[in-house]
Amino acid sequence: MDIESLYLFTEVMHQRNFASIAKARGVAPSSVSRSISALESEIGTRLFQRTTRQIVPTEAGLLYYERINSVLEELELAQQLASDINNQPSGTLRITASKVFGEMYIVPLLAEFSQLYPELSLEIQFNDGYTDLVEERIDIAIRAGSLKDSSYIAKRLLPMSFYISASPEYLSKNGRPESPQQIKEYNCLLFPRSGHNLNWLFKQTQKIQEISVQGKHLLTQSSAIKQCTLAGMGLSLLPDWLIQPELEKGQLIKLFSDYEVTATDYSGAVWLLYPSREYLPSKVRLFNDFLMKHFS
């Protein structure tokens, strides 16, 4: 039995879409379909019900996945153990990263890491949603915010603070708010994402005020909020790592420096997460150490 067809089967189980898998692999969707059909013929049972609109696993497909997934994990672990003996990391390092942070801070480091470990392939997913690291076979996740799943091993990569800022042009036209209560009178650029309060929290000397903010514009991407802030469309609450360059250049002005401000809680950071396993492959340790060195 071809091991690659088993990996392909698990991808179909996760994505339920031949076209997206084919695009990622650089092959035709018909090639993916033929491989799955060949696997079904070899096993002697149908694993998926296909229609023109969807792909749904059969009961046999679900049972097969439960067994095969753990077998593939053990196979990868065995391969990694053998590779680690020679201290030459190889195979594929699967990473998921928050989209904006990943594009700004992780992507520029990939060339250097690849030069250090040329036998190691990288597979990177950029998304801000929840990812089951075990089910998706992710080796390491880079997440910005508060920890939500304590079942993962976590290490803080970077502390994170939130700043309220505005462009000089906006403040020149509308004036500068002097107290948290006055912020209700300003147009605020809102971030309606899960885990983010539409009210902003202001902490000073351990006292927290929750202020209801108003705004005409809701955006679900922090980088888009930054662009709108630079364009003078209102006040925003964004992480320091995202707007620090603009603050240093004077393109944005930080407000309420005497307060700690957030829309979530005060435990936010950029985290490295990896599944809780008895053995941590060297490829994960090396990437972990590489990032910690760069962000220390």
UniProtKB/TrEMBL annotation:
Record flagged with keyword Transcription regulation: yes
SUPFAM superfamilies: Periplasmic binding protein-like II (SSF53850), Winged helix' DNA-binding domain (SSF46785)
Keywords noted in UniProt: DNA-binding, Transcription, Transcription regulation
GO function terms (MF aspect): DNA binding; DNA-binding transcription factor activity
Signal sequence segment: none
Recorded coiled-coil stretches: none
Gene3D superfamilies assigned to the protein according to its UniProt record, in alphabetical order: 3.40.190.290, Winged helix-like DNA-binding domain superfamily/Winged helix DNA-binding domain (1.10.10.10)
HTH lysR-type domain boundaries: 1-58
InterPro entries: LysR-type_TF_proteobact-type, LysR_HTH_N, LysR_subst-bd, WH-like_DNA-bd_sf, WH_DNA-bd_sf
Name of the molecule in the record: Transcriptional regulator, LysR family
Organism in which the protein naturally occurs: hydrothermal vent metagenome
